[in-house]
Automatic annotation (TrEMBL):
InterPro entries: TPR-like_helical_dom_sf. It comes from the Bacteria. It comes from Desulfuromonas acetoxidans (strain DSM 684 / 11070). This is Tetratricopeptide repeat protein.
Length: 224
């Protein structure tokens, strides 16, 4: 099944989704393609229909984080119930936020607290890797490990020269990766506006279909 077809199916199922399974997969597809605005619209729609879901709040916080809406991340996480199963996931989003804001010592402390309370985990390891890489960069003033995580971190912190270097190396490994291509174009100033940036993430035939289809969905919602 093509990614576009799967997105269509998930969008149609979204209004009846109460378990967060549909919205989680849909947001994942949007984010993997770099369609941040679409992910934001989808999570807002789902959250409006499921306002009491802590799983939804954590997912919304992740999408806000990818859109660099840091105040919204904090305010959303503050609504979590400390006794809910989503609480620990929310703490990981908070650690990611502190890293992106450059609060590395605070993030390290929060990582230690999380490990003490909950043990290890893949997401915690990823965050600790980001912090370890940051420490290495502060010592040697150059990227040591080429990973998408570090490239994204540099990009969001405005360290565009380091980000460009990593994205170029990542493109050597994955020449067809649309997200890496788009980031390189953004950094080099070859794109003109956020809409062009978003459109360049998908092949022409799928991009046009997806854009028209999302627009038709929005129009139908407006007239409901």
């Amino acid at each position: 099944m093509s990614e576009l077809k799967r997105i269509r199916e998930l969008v149609e199922r979204l209004p009846s989704d109460t378990s967060s399974d549909v919205i989680s997969e849909l947001v994942g597809l949007y984010l993997s393609a770099g369609l941040l605005d679409a992910a934001l619209d989808a999570v807002k729609q789902w959250s409006a229909n499921n306002p009491e879901s802590d799983d939804g709040r954590v997912l919304a916080a992740r999408v806000y984080l990818e859109n660099a809406l840091y105040d919204e991340v904090r305010s959303t996480l503050q609504q979590l119930d400390a006794s809910s199963s989503a609480w620990r996931s929310g703490l990981l989003v908070e650690i990611d936020l502190e890293i992106r804001l450059g609060n590395f010592h605070l993030a390290e402390q929060k990582c230690a607290d999380w490990r003490h309370s909950y043990g290890s985990g893949e997401e915690l390891k990823r965050l600790e890797e980001m912090l370890d890489q940051q420490d290495a960069d502060e010592e040697f003033d150059e990227p040591i490990v080429v990973t998408p995580t570090m490239a994204d971190l540099y990009f969001r912190q405005g360290l565009v020269e380091k980000a460009l270097l990593l994205y170029l190396k990542l493109l050597e490994q994955e020449p067809e990766n649309a997200l890496y291509q788009n980031r390189v174009k953004q950094i080099r100033g070859e794109q003109h506006g956020a809409e062009d940036a978003k459109n360049s993430l998908t092949p022409d035939n799928q991009r046009q279909q997806l854009s028209r289809w999302l627009l038709s969905i929005q129009r139908r919602r407006t007239h409901v």
